From TrEMBL:
It comes from the Bacteria. Pfam families: Pribosyltran. Keywords: Glycosyltransferase, Transferase. One of its GO terms (molecular function) is glycosyltransferase activity. Residues 10-152 form the Phosphoribosyltransferase domain. The keyword Glycosyltransferase applies. This is Phosphoribosyltransferase domain-containing protein. InterPro entries: PRTase-like (IPR029057), PRTase_dom (IPR000836).
Length: 172
């Protein structure tokens, strides 16, 4: 099946970041650090950092290199256990796999769940995981489009199709 690619225009992306920033500012729960989750959450986290003035670090959950994911999860769990409040930033909560893995890794490393939240540009309402902040909510049982964010627009169509096909039920 060929996916329907829906490009997210740059202006829409910026508006989503501004909406998330306003939501973070309005929430009495105050984060101390943003964590961009690679790959898709890195660009939104940078924009959100500029919009909120919050510092940002990154973690690469898309690579199997332990120094860029597992070791950093431990370091972030220690920071949250010491009282820092972390907001992990992703582009989309689709299947929930990444968020579930992060939550489990943080918990396993002693990080308290009360000091961790998740923000996404697009939240799938039927995802296995819930997020705390989202600009837009979709229902994957209805919306099968594969969203192409501005930073992905330069990817070859075959690479986008390969990413979309990783979990076929998202787009089928």
């Amino acid at each position: 099946m060929t996916p329907t690619f829906t490009h997210v225009p740059h202006g829409r992306f910026v508006a989503a970041v501004e909406a998330l920033a306003a939501t973070l500012r309005a929430d009495p729960w105050r984060p101390s650090l943003l964590v961009g989750v690679g790959r898709g959450g890195l660009v939104p986290a940078v924009f959100l950092s500029h919009a909120t003035g919050l510092p940002m670090v990154s973690i690469d959950f898309s690579t199997p290199i332990p120094e860029f994911n597992d070791a950093l999860v431990g370091a972030l769990a220690a920071r949250s256990a010491a009282g820092e409040r972390l907001v992990f930033v992703e582009d989309i909560n689709d299947s929930g796999r990444t968020i579930a893995a992060l939550r489990q890794g943080l918990t396993d490393a002693g990080g308290p769940r009360d000091n961790v939240r998740f923000a996404v540009l697009i939240d799938n309402s039927v995802s296995a995981e819930r997020v705390d902040y989202a600009d837009r909510v979709i229902d994957r049982t209805v919306t099968k489009d594969w969203f192409v964010f501005p930073w992905e627009a330069v990817a070859p169509p075959a690479a986008l199709a390969q990413d979309a096909a990783e979990i076929p039920q998202r787009i089928a």
